Amino acid sequence: MENVKLLLNPRSGLGNRLRAISSFIYFKSLIDADLEVVWIPDSGLNIRYQDLFQPNPRFKLLNPEFKYNLFIRSKFLTTHKLKFIPWLVSLYNIGLSRLLRFDSLIMDWDVSKGIDHLKNVCRKKKRILVITGNQCVDYQKGFQVFVPIDQIAAKIKVVKETFKDHMIGMHIRKGDHKKAIQNSPNHLFENKIDEYLETKPKSFGVFLATDDPDTASSFERKYPDIVFTYPKIFSRNSREGMMDAVVELFLLAGTEKIYGSYWSSFSGVAKRIYGTELEILHR
Predict the structure, then answer these.
(1) HEC readout, the chain
(2) CA–CA distance, 76 with 72 (Å, rounded to integer)
(3) What is the C-alpha separation between 74 and 141, in angstroms, rounded?
């Protein structure tokens, strides 16, 4: 008897993609399905999976194909005030999935409804296509199978050798993330460092992960020999920049406790890699 095929096309940035894959590693076991992943480099994450991570035993990685970019995920179109526009978008996406010989199409709004809803959608289906940057369940064990390639692992090892005995991690999200900038300003992280300096020995240090070079420089100047950063390429569109992002992610994950930014998937993913305690600093 033919097994159920669950094909996942994870979207958005690195954190969103890893969360989506991890959650469907769990979901596939609920419906007794084989999981396949189509990871497509795009403006949100311009790099291949195999350039970041070793082969994953929990799913089969397929070659990226342009046809999966033909589906419409635009929030503007899928939630438009004119009700006939979301209806037409849904009709188009479903029709395209049928042309590609899938029995069921699952996108962000279905994933956000949770496990029970997804099980109903997938009932008696043989070929299921999932296109999402969301997770259907928080499954920490799924993150344990993301193993960096040797080149990245070597960089992580070199940097960790410079760390102090006791390291906390901080992730300060800037860029175009308005919620993080407004709710997790720099002074909250500075206050937390000052608290540690009053109570901790000299062996205490901070690994700071940020997408803003000015923030990195500011903290290094204010807290010399306390704040450590990884000298990365600040770019989401270059192969080297995305590899550096994974180095930074695993360095952050390997600290004793993480202080993260509001509404940032990067902080959440770092927490789940090793089960590190996470506290979001926000006002």
Answers:
(1) CCCEEEEEEECCCHHHHHHHHHHHHHHHHHCCEEEEEECCCECCECCCHHHCECCCCCCEEECCCHHHHHCCCCHHHHCCCCCHHHHHHHHHHHHHHHHCCCCEEECHHHHCCCHHHHHHHHCCCCEEEEEECCCCCCCHHHHHHCCECHHHHHHHHHHHCCCCCEEEEEEECCCCCHHHHHHCCHHHHHHHHHHHHHHCCCCEEEEEEECCHHHHHHHHHHCCCCEECCCCCCCCCCHHHHHHHHHHHHHHHCCCEEEECCCCHHHHHHHHHHCCEEEECCC
(2) 10
(3) 31
CATH 3.40.50.11350 positions along the chain are 150-280
Q: Is the pTM of this model over 0.85?
A: yes
The CATH architecture that domain 4-143 belongs to is 3-Layer(aba) Sandwich (3.40)
SS3 for 2-40 is CCEEEEEEECCCHHHHHHHHHHHHHHHHHCCEEEEEECC
- Give bridge partners of residue 9 from the DSSP assignment: 131
CATH code, residues 150-280: 3.40.50.11350
32-75 confidence digits (pLDDT tens): 999 999 999 988 888 999 999 999 999 999 999 999 999 998 88
257-260/104-106 β-pairing: unpaired
